[in-house]
Write a structure and sequence with these properties.
Layout lengths: L3 E5 L4 H11 L3 E2 L1 E5 L5 E5 L7 E5 L6 H17 L4 E6 L18 H12 L3 E5 L14 E4 L2 H8 L7 E5 L5 H11 L3 E8 L5 E7 L6 E9 L3 H12 L5 E8 L5 H6 L4 E7 L13 E4 L2 H13 L14 E3 L3
Parallel strand pairs: 1-2, 1-5, 5-6, 6-7, 7-8, 9-10, 9-12, 12-13, 13-14, 14-15
Antiparallel strand pairs: 3-4, 8-16, 10-11
Helix pairs in contact: 1-8
Length: 323
């Protein structure tokens, strides 16, 4: 590889270490200090001059602190004369703020994209954005990965002859259909209406789940309210067992325990885009690593190779470059 320097913020150093192990490069130290007035200061403690710099920082709770850390890291790398700076954001939390669905509200996804560029990001590497239109918020190149290959590899260990993939809503149906095709299985979807951040209403299941084993596929699980509502309808439609799969396991306020307590839930699968070491102790939870995928994408960015080629024909990685 060309000259490369990888740094991590405080949000998920375990993932950054895994990525560096895959790349065969050291994780350079970062010093983060909080002053008595609650302001943060970041120092990158290794040479950045004319280096291809990757800053790994997922936007996990506390999201605002970790976002500010990332902005300061970007500014520090730019001030240190880095040749190119890539913000590696496995979970872009503000992707959910992607539209103006009420008067006088902010569109956080676009604002944060602008802040990243202003702070010094030359490009962004992320995974499973909440909605495709978030790409349009960025004025720097975005390499968008997702974890369908990792999840498909995991679920192929099971007998899937009686399985159907279910999307909790129609917005995620296209991704669920691609996942179902990779497993050679049919797809169904819930007709969902969001009432609030934690409340949804599902009016029907579109597709046949009678007597079937179900894999529920979603981009993220936060409070688990959507999944619990979907489970109620799946039972009413005669589904047999349920496995829940998502890329971003936020699992706020004991969501894993609530979902695992449902008798027909056989397994909950997520990836390590967010730090969830304590949750891994739950017997129904399986955490898949996306470090190899992120490391390979970083290697390709560094070498000037295609990132979308990682996913083959059909393009499960989407790349947007707005010059």
């Amino acid at each position: 590889m060309n000259q490369i320097a990888v740094f991590s913020g405080s949000s998920h150093p375990e993932l950054a270490n895994e990525i560096c192990a895959e790349l065969g490069v050291p994780l350079n130290p970062t010093q983060i200090k909080r002053f008595s007035n609650d302001c943060l200061e970041v120092q990158l403690q290794a040479n950045c001059r004319e280096q291809d710099v990757f800053l790994v920082q997922t936007l996990s709770a506390p999201v605002q602190d970790h976002l500010t850390e990332l902005l300061l890291m970007l500014d520090a790398a730019r001030g240190a004369s880095a040749a190119r700076i890539t913000a590696v954001i496995p979970h872009y939390a503000y992707a959910r703020s992607d539209k103006k669905d009420a008067p006088r509200i902010s569109i956080g996804g676009r604002l944060v994209a602008d802040l990243l560029k202003t702070a010094g990001a030359d490009r962004v590497l992320t995974m499973t954005l909440h909605s495709p239109q978030v790409h349009g918020f960025f004025s720097v190149p975005v390499d968008h990965l997702h974890a369908l290959h990792e999840m498909a590899r995991h679920f192929r260990r099971y007998d899937l002859s009686n399985t159907v993939v279910v999307s909790p809503d129609l917005g995620n149906a296209k991704t669920a259909a691609a996942f179902a095709r990779s497993l050679g299985r049919p797809v169904a979807a819930g007709a969902k209406e969001r009432i609030s951040d934690t409340q949804v209403r599902i009016s029907a299941i579109i597709g046949d789940v009678q007597g079937r084993d179900v894999i529920v596929l979603d981009d993220e699980v936060a409070s688990g309210g959507s999944i619990l509502e979907l489970l109620r309808h799946l039972r009413g439609s005669g589904a047999r067992t349920v496995r829940i799969a998502c890329t971003h396991g936020i699992f706020a306020d004991g969501a894993v325990a609530r979902l695992a307590a449902e008798g027909d839930v056989a397994e909950i699968v997520c990836t390590n885009t967010l730090p969830n070491a304590l949750l891994q102790q739950h017997q129904k939870l399986t955490v898949l690593s996306v470090a190899p995928a992120l490391a390979e994408a970083m290697r390709r960015i560094n070498n000037g190779d295609s990132v979308s080629a990682l996913f083959g024909e059909g393009g499960h990685a989407q790349r947007v470059a707005a010059e």
